[in-house]
Design goal:
single chain, mainly alpha, 10 helices
């Protein structure tokens, strides 16, 4: 079973979550009120409390969906590429395409939201528990992708897979840090550096063999 796949929410619950996600893109989570969500979604209070333990549970569920949206799609495409492509250089090319597309689609606001959710989790235990489960599932998928590359002889088995998984995920936090700087990096050069990082881990052995041949 795919670790990133969870049972879908009931349509009513998902509509409430979608409403909160839309509001979170322009409003701080602590400024969102239940009355506003119910009015905007057209759903009454009874169904909301049927699907969520309380209003905070709804807000947290929305934050978790935002947090994993980009990462879950990207890592699943990477795992699929490694599973379906036997040529490491074709797989490497597919890796690059995935991140070019995902990087271009992801807005600065979405990236800031992810960092904000991490910040919120530091002081909200229930959110932290939800986030820890989601984060671990993402890390395990990255580990899966790396180990698949090791099994195919593309990556170095001496490198700890979990360390690679955490390092790769941390690169996206760096985008937010750069956005706070007065002088910001060129997105194309960031992508170039990111792909070099991929080469250093996921395709290091394959690239070394090509150089030697």
């Amino acid at each position: 079973m795919d670790l990133l796949v969870e049972p879908p929410l009931h349509p009513t619950a998902q509509k409430l979550v979608n409403t909160v996600i839309e509001m979170l893109r322009t409003t701080s989570y602590n400024n969102i009120k239940s009355e506003s969500v119910l009015l905007k979604s057209g759903i009454s209070r009874g169904p909301m409390y049927h699907h969520f333990a309380n209003f905070e549970d709804l807000i947290e569920t929305a934050q978790i969906q935002i947090y994993k949206e980009f990462a879950s799609e990207a890592i699943q495409e990477l795992v699929d590429a490694v599973n379906s492509i036997e040529d490491p250089f074709k797989a490497r090319e597919q890796f690059g395409k995935v991140f070019v597309v995902k990087s271009n689609l992801k807005s600065e606001n979405d990236l800031r939201l992810r960092v904000g959710i991490i910040h919120n989790a530091a002081s909200i235990k229930s959110l932290r528990e939800k986030l820890s489960r989601t984060q671990e599932s993402m890390t395990l998928e990255w580990i899966k992708a790396y180990n698949l590359c090791v099994d195919k002889g593309w990556a170095d088995p001496k490198i700890d897979a979990r360390a690679v998984a955490i390092l790769m995920q941390s690169t996206f936090i760096g985008r937010v840090i750069d956005n706070l700087s007065k002088e910001q990096m060129d997105p194309a050069l960031w992508l170039q550096a990111l792909l070099r990082l991929f080469d250093s881990f996921f395709f290091a052995t394959a690239l070394a063999h090509r150089t030697m041949s």
